[in-house]
Amino acid sequence: MKNWMLALGVFFLTLCSIQAQGVVGKWKTIDDETGEAKSIVEIYEKSGKIYGKVVDILRADRKKDVCTKCDGTEKNKPIMGMVIINGLKKDGAEYNGGTILDPTNGKKYKCYITLDSADKLKLRGYVGISIVGRTQYWTRVKN
């Protein structure tokens, strides 16, 4: 019985630790097709909403790339420094209700993010309903 109670306590402690950690911080983006690390995105909170900005591009030959396929104010702007996650709101363990921009194709998608573990972020971008989309997993950057 003691072992069971101890295991249950450790489980809840771990769960609370993951929730307390939150999504705010720097994350290494991983291309879901190639598995290649592409960039570092800093996720931050502003006025109760979550945003994400590209703070580093990991391939030296891509550091000065611009978003040629983007529309509006992002068109032909540098990807470095670009805010790609906009206006997510906390909804239980998930952040949703905002958008993500894919600078590769210039398209904006609805998205949601959740912590898969303390150092692994699940991000799903989709059109219409979440079943029509793709998922990426990003890893937390340790300072």
From TrEMBL:
Record Pfam families: DUF2147
Record-annotated DUF2147 domain positions: 25-140
Keyword Signal: yes
Superkingdom of origin organism: Bacteria
Signal peptide per UniProt: 1-22
Keywords: Signal
Gene3D superfamilies registered for this protein in UniProt: 2.40.128.520
Family matches, as InterPro entries: DUF2147
Full protein name: DUF2147 domain-containing protein
Organism of provenance: Flavobacterium limi
